[in-house]
Amino acid sequence: MTRLSLFFMAKPSQAQRQGQIRIIGGQWRGRKLTISDSIGLRPTSCRMRETLFNWLAPMIKDARCLDCFSGSGALGLEALSRHAAEAVLLESNERVAKQLLLHLSILEAKNAQMIHTNTLNWLARPCEKPFDLIFLDPPFHQGLLSYAIPLLEQQSWFADEAWIYIESESSHTLAMIPSHWRLQKEKITRHVAYRLFIRELFFHRRGAFKKSCCK
User: Which reaction does it catalyse (predicted)?
Assistant: First the structure.
């Protein structure tokens, strides 16, 4: 599912295989963290992450971030390195979650929270405090975006004018994206689509107003 650069080093067995993630910018630039290989762990390339955080440069400082399918934690850690105010990392795999906790400890990331949970169950509960930036980079071919996106809207996880980054299969269409999510940036390769949206509150409220007037 994630992120930062991941380089596999030869090991005797699949269970023992390890790699590294490297933070590419900010206060922890160049820091390398060891991770275990896990089925479904799909790193975003260094080049694409650099592009993404160039896109996010005007808003990342002091942003409150939610990394919904955290995996290696690369997006959440990169955001923290670039002075996001806070990051909440959600991960369902117990081994991966423990590794994320270790990484946060190594980096002394006091403004981060790692939650070992099923992301969809967590998003289904009422929001206590909304987020400025939400990362959606789930395991591919499981249809998780079709569940996560409605939950984010229904439970009001977004701050005003929030940004949403989605990484999905290149074949994934925009049909399920709400009309008030405005596509800002997009890059599509042979297998992966990278998209950045802004949730425009004005259009959302105007749509709700029109519906109420028509009743």
Answer: guanosine(966) in 16S rRNA + S-adenosyl-L-methionine = N(2)-methylguanosine(966) in 16S rRNA + S-adenosyl-L-homocysteine + H(+)
Q: What confidence tens digit (pLDDT) does each residue in 63-78 have?
A: 999 999 999 899 999 9
* Domain of 92, in residue numbers: 18-213
Q: Residue 136: inside a domain, yes or no?
A: yes
Q: What is the pLDDT of residues 165-190, one digit of tens each?
A: 999 998 888 888 999 999 999 999 99
For residue 19, pLDDT over 80 is answered with no
| Domains contained in the chain, number | 1
Q: What is the pLDDT of residues 20-73, one digit of tens each?
A: 888 999 999 999 988 776 655 665 677 888 999 999 999 999 999 999 999 989
CA 25 to chain centre: 17
DSSP codes of every residue in 70-130: -TT-HHHHHHHHTT-SEEEEEE--HHHHHHHHHHHHHHT-TTEEEEES-HHHHHTSPPSS-
Q: Going by C-beta distance under 8 Å and a sequence separation of 6 or more, which residues neighbour residue 11?
A: 17, 18
Q: Is residue 108 part of a domain?
A: yes
